[in-house]
């Protein structure tokens, strides 16, 4: 059981808001990747929600559950072993603190760069005697996620009629994986009737797309265009794709990066695994020329992914990180 000191509890009281979590997503756009119409359905979903679910994705379920099992094992290790992964600056093990600017959430996590050297090094730090099981599970999963992300991005590009050179811009390079563990609400919270315990506060992802998979525990919500928050029913056999800030800019606002958040469940742990596909570090983030209509101007100043990231790390989680790049 999780024991909370009064001090720790106070931090979370600030982050919990009484909101209606009963509102479920009316119809989640669900894309069967083998459907010949998938490309246009993806574009429609990205315009309307910045979010969709993919089925028939071709990722073996056994590979997914292998990483989920190893992730659960990792989070059940003694604290000092988890901390051997180092602090998440930017990669490592984090507990309740998110990012460098005071955000907190009811979770612990492991943030990993997708490079084999990094994964190997971190698995050795966690388990010097037996690093390979976790390492294989992570690397196999990353390999499948890369393929899935590229497949989805290619479908998006075709759906948007992106041609020639521009297509390469949707190629991703800095890739990383986030493994999250949201413990259930602690008993101390039950006393605060009608409040939600924030696992991960509202934010948009900075990257091009994020590929989210979770176990069957609820808690994930997205914000609709009208500002209403809706709960997304979990589905451990599918992936959820989230449009990130970079893709919003590349499409000059046609696609919207989706605001999302996670609340802790009353009884069950939530494990999620998110693969982030971002642009190359020194790449300019700008609308793809071939999708711009005649005379259409970019809504954004030109900036590189490096510049965005530098400013993102100065931001709070819920900040609109694109605001400073909007043309005035
Ligand atoms: C949000 C999306 C990803 O989880 C993440 C987060 C990152 C972090 O946890 O270090 C950030 C956040 C995220 C955006 C603003 C900064 C950086 C925490 C934070 C307050 C890994 C990412 O790429 O950006």
Explain the overall architecture:
- The chain is α+β, with helices and mostly antiparallel strands and 328 residues long.
- The chain has a single domain (28-314), classed as Jelly Rolls (Sandwich), CATH 2.60.120.
- The protein is built from ten helices and 14 strands.
- Strands 1-2-10-7-12-5-4-3 form an eight-stranded mixed sheet. The protein has a four-stranded antiparallel sheet with strand order 6-11-8-9, with no helix packed on it.
- Helix 2 (38-48) crosses helix 6 (132-159).
- The radius of gyration is 19 Å and the shape is globular.
- It starts with 5 loop residues before the first helix and ends in a 16-residue tail after the last helix.
- The mean pLDDT is 91.
- The protein binds gibberellin A4.
- GO terms for molecular function: gibberellin 2-beta-dioxygenase activity; metal ion binding.
| Strand-pairing-aware structural class | alpha+beta
The overall average pLDDT, rounded, is 91
Which parts are unreliable, with pLDDT below 50 for 5 consecutive residues or more? none
Dominant shape: globular
Q: Spatial order of the strands in the main sheet?
A: 1-2-10-7-12-5-4-3
Number of domains: 1
Query: What is the level-2 CATH architecture name?
Result: Sandwich
Strand content: 15-25%
Determine the CATH topology. Answer: Jelly Rolls
Which distinct ligands sit in these coordinates? Answer: gibberellin A4
Helix content: 25-40%
The CATH class is: Mainly Beta
The rounded distance between the terminal residues' Cα atoms is 51 Å
**For this structure, what is the CATH homologous superfamily?**
B-lactam Antibiotic, Isopenicillin N Synthase, Chain
Rg, alpha carbons: 19 Å
Name the helix and strand elements from N-terminus to C-terminus, one letter apiece: HEHEHHEEHHHEHEEEEEHEEEEH
Quickly count the helices.
10
């Amino acid at each position: 059981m999780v024991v909370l000191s009064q001090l720790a509890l106070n931090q979370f009281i600030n982050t919990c808001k009484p909101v209606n979590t009963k509102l479920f997503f009316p119809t989640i756009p669900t894309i069967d990747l083998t459907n010949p119409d998938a490309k246009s359905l993806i574009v429609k979903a990205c315009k309307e929600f910045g979010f969709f679910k993919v089925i028939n994705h071709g990722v073996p379920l056994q590979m997914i559950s292998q990483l989920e099992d190893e992730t659960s094992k990792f989070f059940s290790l003694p604290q000092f072993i988890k901390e051997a992964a180092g602090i998440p600056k930017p990669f490592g093990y984090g507990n309740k603190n998110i990012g460098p600017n005071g955000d907190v959430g009811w979770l612990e996590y492991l943030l990993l760069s997708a490079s084999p050297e990094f994964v190997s090094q971190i698995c050795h730090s966690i388990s010097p005697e037996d690093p390979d099981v976790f390492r294989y599970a992570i690397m196999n999963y990353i390999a499948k996620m890369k393929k899935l992300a590229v497949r989805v991005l290619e479908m998006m590009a075709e759906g948007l009629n992106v041609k020639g050179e521009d297509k390469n811009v949707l190629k991703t390079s800095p890739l990383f994986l986030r493994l999250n563990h949201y413990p259930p609400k602690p008993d101390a919270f039950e006393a605060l009737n009608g409040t939600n315990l924030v696992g991960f506060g509202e934010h948009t992802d900075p990257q091009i797309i994020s590929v989210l998979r979770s176990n069957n525990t609820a808690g994930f919500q997205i914000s609709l265009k009208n500002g209403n928050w809706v709960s997304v029913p979990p589905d451990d056999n599918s992936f959820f794709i989230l449009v990130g800030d970079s893709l919003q800019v590349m499409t000059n606002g046609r696609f919207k990066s989706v605001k999302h958040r996670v609340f802790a469940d009353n009884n069950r742990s939530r494990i999620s695994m998110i693969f982030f596909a971002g642009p190359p570090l020194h790449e300019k983030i700008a609308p793809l020329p071939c999708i711009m209509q005649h005379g259409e101007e970019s809504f954004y100043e030109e900036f590189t992914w490096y510049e965005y990231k530098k400013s993102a790390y100065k931001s709070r989680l819920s900040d609109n990180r694109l605001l400073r790049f909007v043309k005035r």
